Amino acid sequence: MTLEQIQFRRAWAGRLGALLSLLLFLVILDALVARFREPLNRFSGLPGTSLAVNGPLAEKIDRIQDLSFQSPSPDIRLEFENLQTGFWLGGNLWNGRLHIGPQIRPGQYPLAVLSGKAGEGPKAFFFRIEVFPDQPAMRKSSKSFLISTLGLYPWPTALTLAPLILLTFGAVFWLSHQSDALLARQGKAEIYRLKKTDQGLEIFFGLGKNHGLKPGDPLTLINSSGARLGSVTVTEVQADYSAATVEAVGEVRPGLWVCR
User: Fold this and answer.
1) Average pLDDT over residues 170-199
2) Are 77 and 34 spatial neighbours (Cβ–Cβ below 8 Å)?
3) For the chain, which terminal residue's Cβ has fewer other Cβ atoms within 10 angstroms, N or C?
4) DSSP single-letter state for residue 210
5) Shortest CA distance to 109 belongs to which of 40, 37, 48, 45?
């Protein structure tokens, strides 16, 4: 590939990586916003399904056996599995599975989770079960924009985007390495860092001892079109990179080149 082809592909890979990163941010934001918009006492499901659920307790209890539930529909059944403390906000929670019978009619059903210690009256926490006739109807009711509009679930979408982002930025890194190697063979290097010092502006670029450079060598500062902008003097030399002070007048920025 020519230098122009490498830089063109690197630029587009960088733009693609930035776009995918923005999409990943929006997907995660959509998932978090949907989570906080979703009431803690609302569960959604389809007839004939079983789903993992959890919810707060009306009071602290020590045994799962102190929990029970009540529902006006025999097709709504709650199976308690364990107790836990909320990770983010604390509080007492129960975990379990909600079983929705296959013959139930779509609609909204109340569910009360009762907790009570021996010798005390039970205390209730109320939930709303929404049963939908099919998957499209349930997706449309979702608080997530991705789910309700595009039918995409945020977290699987995020897991798909993450490796694509790594791949695109890996391509940017590889193409940058190819560009640097090609420029070095031509006695050129791209400025990748600027630093202000007491002596003036110091630049860093990818030519060093391995390319025959030594302190005090004069280099020419050029743009990507090859136009001369000024000159620099090498001050520090390492194996694969060097630093130099700028003697040019005008704007100096990363992306400009130095040449021998």
Assistant:
1) 85
2) no
3) N
4) G
5) 45
